[in-house]
């Protein structure tokens, strides 16, 4: 009878030990599964975070590209405006210089070809004429005998029509 009890006790102890080992193994398996699930979740979170960072970087690159494009457009517009202004100023200056040169050349050529000894200045610029040396008392005005007899009467007429 003692042998039977001993065998039963040994079997019970072995059964308890096996049950404990099985329980520990089951617990370890659950822990491993939980760890694997946590690792997978963390991996998914990391992937999502990386994707968000990449998208944010792409947005930043696009914003910078748009800003650069805007700056380039503004610079091009400013350069075009400056070029147009410079061209306008150059044209105005050239026209003014040519006008003055033509007036001066025609005026003095009229005086020289009309044998004028000096320039008579009256109250205003528009009534300044050449004085003819052959008739110092008369002014070389449009339609006068002095201009009509001069070798360059057309130049005198041009000057008077220009208001020189």
TrEMBL record:
Transmembrane stretches, start-end: 7-28, 34-54, 59-79, 85-108
Keyword field: Membrane, Transmembrane, Transmembrane helix
Keyword Transmembrane applies: yes
Protein name: Uncharacterized protein
Organism (species): Dreissena polymorpha (Zebra mussel)
């Amino acid at each position: 009878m003692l042998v039977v009890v001993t065998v039963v006790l040994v079997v019970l102890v072995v059964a308890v030990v096996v049950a404990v080992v099985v329980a520990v193994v089951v617990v370890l398996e659950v822990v491993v599964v939980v760890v694997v699930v946590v690792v997978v979740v963390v991996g998914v979170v990391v992937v999502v975070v990386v994707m968000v960072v990449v998208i944010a970087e792409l947005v930043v690159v696009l914003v910078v590209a748009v800003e650069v494009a805007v700056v380039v457009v503004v610079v091009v517009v400013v350069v075009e405006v400056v070029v147009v202004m410079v061209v306008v100023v150059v044209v105005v200056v050239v026209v003014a210089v040519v006008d003055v040169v033509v007036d001066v050349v025609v005026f003095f050529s009229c005086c020289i070809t009309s044998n004028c000894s000096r320039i008579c200045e009256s109250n205003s610029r528009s009534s300044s004429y050449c004085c003819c040396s052959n008739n110092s008392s008369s002014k070389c005005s449009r339609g006068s005998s002095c201009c009509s007899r001069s070798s360059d009467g057309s130049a005198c007429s041009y000057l008077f029509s220009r208001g020189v």
